[in-house]
Amino acid sequence: MESGASAPSAAAAPAPAPRRLDILLADDDADIREIATLALQRDGRAEVRSCGDGAAALNAVRAARPDLLVLDVMMPGLDGRATMAELRRLHPNPPPVIFLTAKAMPEELEQLRQLGARHIITKPFDPMKLLDEVLVSLGQTDVR
Amino acid sequence: MSAEAAALANRLRELTVQFAAEVPQAVSELLDLVAQAARSDGAPRRERLVQIELLAHRLNGRAAMYEWSRLSRRAAAVEAAAAAMLAGKGSWNARLPALCEALTRAIPTRTGSPV
C-alpha cells in the first residue's frame, strides 16, 4: 500500500523545520569566539556552543557530539592539533574539524591538512562570509 | 544589509573600540614579560617566552580581525621572535625588546581609529 496519496491532512501538515547545524567552537580569545559565534549563528542555520580550550572542547564532544568542530590552532594547554589528535583517539568516527589559524604559512597549512582537517580558515576571516565558507567546506549546497 | 548582518557589524564596531582601549595595557604587559625574560634563564625564561608568544599571538589575531594591519604585523614579529627562541630552546634574542618597542609605536592614538 502506498502511503500519502489518500491522506490530505498529513499533506497539509507543515514541514518540520530543518535541523540546525550544531557547531562546537574552541578559541582562547573571547573576542574571536564572540565574533565567530555571531557570524555563524547570524541567519539561524547553525547554532554554536563555544569554549576556550581543547580540554573543554573534548568534554563538550563527550556530552553531545557536534556536527562540526571549529578549532583555533594556537591555544594554551591542549592546542588545536593536540585536540584533534585526542579526538581521533577517543572517537572512532569523529566529527569533521575546521581549523582557525592566524599563521598562513604554506607548510603549516599543509601540516594541518595532513592531520585530516576538513578545511582551514585563516584569520582575519570575514564575519559576513564565515558561515558560507563553513557550509561549503561541509558540502552543503544550499548556501545563499 | 539584513538586520542580522547589521547587528554583527555594530558589534564588531563596539569590539574594535573596546580593543583600542585595551591595547596599551596589553603592550605594557608584553614589555614587562620581555624585561622579565631578559633577566631570567632556563625554565623561567622559557615560561616567559611562552607567555610572550601567546600574548603577541592574541594581539596579532585581534588586530588583524579589526583590520589594524600595522599593529598586527608588529605583534606578529614579536610572536615569531618568541617562537624562534622557543624553538632554539630559549637562547636570548636581543631583537625581541626592539620588536616590542616597535609595537608600542603601533598603538592606536585615537580610540577606534585604525592605524
Word description of this protein:
- The complex is a heterodimer of chains A (144) and B (115).
- Chain A is α/β, with parallel strands linked by helices and 144 residues long.
- Helix content of chain A is 38%, strand content 18%.
- In chain A, helix 3 (54-63) runs parallel beside helix 4.
- Chain A is globular.
- Mean pLDDT of chain A is 88; it is low at 1-7.
- Chain B has helices at 3-39, 42-65, 69-87, 95-104.
- By secondary structure, chain B is mainly α.
- The model of chain B has no long low-confidence stretch (mean pLDDT 88).
- At the A-B interface, helix 2 of A face helix 1 and helix 2 of B.
Outline of the structure:
Chain A has 144 residues and is of the alpha/beta class. Helix content of chain A is 38%, strand content 18%.
Index terms:
heterodimer, A: 144 residues, alpha/beta, Rossmann fold, five-stranded parallel β-sheet, 6 helices, 38% helix, globular, B: 115 residues, mainly alpha, 78% helix, elongated
Number of strands of chain B: 0
Biggest sheet of chain A: strands side by side, in what order?
2-1-3-4-5
Helix content of chain B: over 70%
Kindly give the count of domains of chain A.
1
- Assign the CATH architecture of chain A: 3-Layer(aba) Sandwich
Helix/sheet category of chain B: mainly alpha
How much of the polypeptide of chain A forms β-strand, as a percent range?
Answer: 15-25%
Largest interface: A-B, 18 and 19 residues
Principal-axes shape call of chain B: elongated
Order of helices and strands of chain A: HEHEHEHEHEH
Low-confidence stretches of chain A are 1-7
Compute the number of helices of chain B.
4
Question: Compute the gyration radius of chain A: what is it?
Answer: 18 Å
What's the assembly state of these chains? heterodimer
Bin the helical content of chain A. 25-40%
CATH classification class of chain A: Alpha Beta
Name the shape of chain A in a single word: globular
Residue stretches of chain B low in confidence (pLDDT < 50, at least 5 long) are: none
Total number of beta strands of chain A: 5
SS field, number of helical segments of chain A: 6
**Average pLDDT rating of chain B:** 88
